[in-house]
Specification:
The protein is α/β, with parallel strands linked by helices and about 230 residues long. The chain has a single domain (about 1-230), classed as Alpha-Beta Barrel (TIM Barrel), CATH 3.20.20. It has helices at about 20-35, 55-70, 85-95, 110-120, 135-140, 160-170, 190-195, 220-230; strands at about 1-5, 40, 75, 100-105, 125-130, 150-155, 180-185, 200-205. The protein starts with a strand and ends with a helix.
Amino acid sequence: MLKACLNGGVTRQQHARVPLTPAELAEDARRCREAGAAAVHVHPRDADGRESLAPEHVAAAVEAIREACPGLPVGVTTGAWILPDPAARVKAIAAWRVLPDFASVNAHEEGALDVARAVHDRGVGVEAGVWSAAALVEYLRWPVPCVRVLIECMAPDPAQALADAARMLALLPSGSPPVLLHAEGPGVWPVLRQAVARELDARIGLEDTLVMPDGSPARDNPALVAAAVAAGAR
């Protein structure tokens, strides 16, 4: 499964075509699905472009994407940088009136298990975000079922990102949920190729990289998705 990660925390100053508004997210999602993406992950924004977990902003983003792309699975973040207080994140999730199909919860963040429970209790699929071997060990203690494990290689050096991927994958027990392997920054394309080689889920988009496989600037999310499909992701 190839997921398009449309915006993350990227600003207009970093990339002129990053989608921020619900309408922009919906149009990018539509074009990414046409290019080969099977799901999308978004960071809803408020009127000032700031990332938000507020029910009205989550609803606006999810509803716009579903209207433009019926049947396309839509996921959102629950990142602690948006609401550092775990109780505030749990409260926000409990107030969501339009539910995404899945939401990522980073295992290393304070209160991650409570946030994962809150997501699961709403009937939303939990994606466990694992950034390190220590975070993976923490995730393995969760009693909350997950629909997917995100092995996220955050090291800026591609060789280290690949080494981290191999280490974390080796620690996963048999019978684990499906794995999505990805990186951020310079390691994105080498790690995506590793995901293809291992027949794992993958993701691509402006949240993770602003460049194409040859290092040239990426025009937009659909261009990145098309390049990932050409590299064997699907």
